Amino acid sequence: MTNLNSNIAMTRLHNQQLISTKFKKPLELISWLGAIQGQDYAGAKWALGLRLPGITDTYVENEFAAKTLLRTWLMRGTLQIVSADDIHWMLNLLAPRIIKKNTRRYRELELDDDTLKQSNQVLKESLEGGTELNRKELLDILRKKGIGTEGQRAAYILQRASLDGLICQCGVDNNVPLYMSLDMIPESDMDDDEALAELTRRYFKSRGPATLHDFIWWSGLLTADARTGLEAVKLELKQETINGKTYWYSEEENLLTLSEDSGPNLPVVHLLPTYDEYLFAYRDRSASLDLKMRKYLQGHYRSTISLDGQIVGTWRRTFKKSRVLMEYHPFITLNRDEKHALDEAELLYRKFMNKK
């Protein structure tokens, strides 16, 4: 691990609110981050708890129940947790490209324009007036209307209605995604240029230091659009070109002078969920995931252990009634202080889940 990688990692820990968080509520945090990857619902909730010590899983669930947090398909066509205030302008900006990329898959699944229009209308009508239905209930309704939901058709039908701004997920019902109408959420008056600038701003301020290529990968935007977004906000950011790569980050941080003294005196461990933004917000993850450590992951997505910003192992949990069993697979030998930091990280997780 180079000092440069250590400095980049430590700055990202700060900006991603993994240390010295400046927020207290999930809505504040999500508004800062823009969105977090959310296909693993339990993991996404923990990603919030990890950054907001003191909140619980139930607290986050209540945010979904209150419709302040929602889940839909955004960056790269993956499920994301987003605030109700941001969902419309993000969909307006990102959904058209996702729909275009899905064209071939729609054809393979025999989802032509007429079928998608019909399924959209059925879903829209089913959720009118504040009605909330889970995935199974919606699929039953579609089938009764003569719309096939076999195989991946179901996923693409629900995703398309979401991308078209008709529906979104608002939590779970017995571990099954729960849907609501997006008509319940006020539209945004942000135009495309403003939306592009805002997405770019939030990315680099909350996830910097990062490169343009990192932003392109995370957002799923065309390179030209990503460049336009960066051009619109670059005066609000700092930049440093190191080893041929230009990093952009918040003007509140200083990458080159961020030394070991700027970080914690004692080791800090984070139990990251599988798709956490600390890794998945970047195309190049080498600042936090050393090549020697990468081989231990064997190309799989896993929940990882971060030690002072560096990935040093994996972890998993098993629930047994009121208890949670924790299992760790470190890639290195942890010293006494590092083991204590791991114990502290485990305690935070147990408190979040309200488990012994």
Describe the structure.
The longest helix has 18 residues, at 336-353. It is globular and about 60 Å long. It has 356 residues and is of the alpha+beta class. The chain is 45% helix and 19% strand. Residues 256-262 have low confidence and may be disordered. The protein has 2 domains: 1-21 and 192-356, no CATH class; 22-184, no CATH class. The strands form 4 sheets. The protein has a 4-stranded antiparallel beta sheet, sandwiched between helices. Strands 1-3-2 form a 3-stranded antiparallel beta sheet. A 3-stranded antiparallel beta sheet has the order 4-6-5. It contains 15 helices and 12 strands. The protein has helices at 3-15, 26-33, 41-51, 57-65, 87-101, 103-108, 113-126, 135-144, 153-163, 192-207, 212-219, 223-233, 277-280, 291-297, 336-353; strands at residues 36-37, 69-73, 79-83, 133-134, 167-173, 176-181, 237-242, 245-250, 269-272, 304-307, 310-320, 323-330. Helix 7 (113-126) crosses helix 9 (153-163). It comes from Methanobacterium formicicum. InterPro entries: AlkZ-like. This is AlkZ family DNA glycosylase.
Task: Kindly summarize this structure in a few lines.
This is AlkZ family DNA glycosylase. This protein is an alpha+beta fold.
Rounded Rg: 21 Å
Low-confidence stretches: 256-262
Widest sheet: strand ordering: 9-10-11-12
- The SSE order reads HHEHHEEHHHEHHEEHHHEEEHHEEEH
Strand content: 15-25%
* Helical/strand content category: alpha+beta
Count the beta strands.
Answer: 12
Look at the structure and give the mean pLDDT: 94
Helix content, binned percent: 40-55%
Total tally of structural domains: 2
Largest sheet: 4 strands, antiparallel
| Gross morphology | globular
Oligomer: single chain
Tally of helical segments: 15
Distance between the termini: 36 Å
Pfam families: AlkZ-like
Organism: Methanobacterium formicicum
InterPro entries: AlkZ-like
Protein name: AlkZ family DNA glycosylase
